[in-house]
Automatic annotation (TrEMBL):
The lineage of its organism: Bacteria, Pseudomonadati, Pseudomonadota, Gammaproteobacteria, Pseudomonadales. CDD domains: fer2 (cd00207), PDR_like (cd06185). Residues 1-101 form the FAD-binding FR-type domain. PROSITE patterns: 2FE2S_FER_1, 2FE2S_FER_2, FAD_FR. It comes from Pseudomonas thivervalensis. This is Oxidoreductase.
Length: 317
């Protein structure tokens, strides 16, 4: 854990604050690469992941952007209401599950709303190394788009197109046009609301983009319709103990209630913190972390959200 102090809290847009974090001791923060995130241990005991959006060569600070989610489970609400300038927080070292492909001939960046946070860091990096890219920043209105004035004054402003829902039709995102040239050396990066991301990724696939050229980061997992889940059993390989997992609880919840330690963070299958080996049985994958190839092997799953297709899963615990 790294102890940091909040040296700046600024209202960046409607419902979005930025937080500047600096080391408590007069030292440098760990290096990070574009697309990285950190775990933030909040005053209310929750742990949440937030993308780093400042330039990756900066070691004296980390910059976060946090949207107050109306359906907050306590994370964004705590950041907005309980964290202020002068607050001290514990954070993890940066991790990157959304890295840039540095061999790309051209990068196409898409940000929807608060999805600008990792995308902005990517734009900073690509601009610094002189790599060709374009950034499409989409939002409901300019007043709800964080860092928009900073972007307009940046050295890479000419690479950015802003698309707002309440603007003229001519400036709205035409994903088909933008993605009409799926050359082998072009790579696409997208972050934002799930519907926005699926639109961009679906359009890219329809235009012939290969999966290896498509990169995404989810902030929330897709909702599972009520009634499309059932109970099953999990067994611990080390002790042989068996536990029933009802439809109303996750595997992680059942194991934690039984005193079995499971590391948790996002609790939505996004971060991979709770990833657990599966020795027998077939998982029903509901995460946003594993690739399709990793899911097909059925040798690991995320107990915070994923379930079972078979009657029993034997876990390497």
């Amino acid at each position: 854990m790294i102890e940091v102090i909040v040296t700046g809290k600024r209202l960046e847009a409607e419902g979005i604050y930025s937080f500047e974090l600096a080391p408590v001791e007069n030292s440098m923060l760990p290096a990070f690469s574009a697309g990285s995130h950190i775990d933030v241990h909040l005053p209310n005991g929750l742990v949440r992941q937030y993308s780093l959006c400042n330039h990756p060569e900066e070691r004296h600070r980390y910059l976060l952007g946090v949207l107050l989610d109306p359906a907050s489970r306590g994370g964004s609400q705590a950041m907005h209401q309980q964290v202020h300038e002068g607050s001290r927080l514990r954070i993890s070292e940066p991790r990157n599950l959304f890295p840039l492909e540095h061999g790309a001939g051209h990068s196409v960046l898409f940000a929807g709303g608060i999805g600008i946070t990792p995308i902005l860091c990517m734009a900073e990096r690509l601009a610094r190394i002189g790599a060709p890219f374009e950034l499409h920043y989409c939002g409901r209105s300019a007043g709800r788009m964080a860092f928009i004035e900073y972007i307009r004054r940046s050295t890479f402003a000419d690479c950015v197109q802003v698309h707002v829902d309440d603007g003229e039709d001519a400036q709205r995102l035409d994903a088909v046009r933008v993605l009409s040239g799926p050359a082998a050396d072009r790579h696409l990066y997208v972050c934002g609301p799930n519907g926005f991301m699926e639109h961009v990724l679906g359009t890219a696939r329809a235009q012939g983009w290969a999966e290896a050229q498509l990169h995404r980061e989810y902030f929330t997992a897709a909702a599972v319709p009520v009634g499309e889940t059932g109970g099953f059993e999990v067994q611990l390989a080390s002790t042989g103990q068996c536990f029933q997992v009802p439809a109303t609880l996750s595997v992680a919840q059942v194991l934690l209630e039984a005193g079995i330690d499971i590391p948790l963070s996002c609790e939505q299958g996004i971060c991979g913190t709770c990833l657990t080996r599966v020795l027998e049985g077939e998982p029903e994958h509901r995460d946003m972390f594993l690739t399709d190839a990793e899911r097909a092997r059925n040798d690991q799953f995320t107990p915070c959200c994923s379930r079972a297709r078979s009657a029993r899963l034997v876990l390497d615990l």
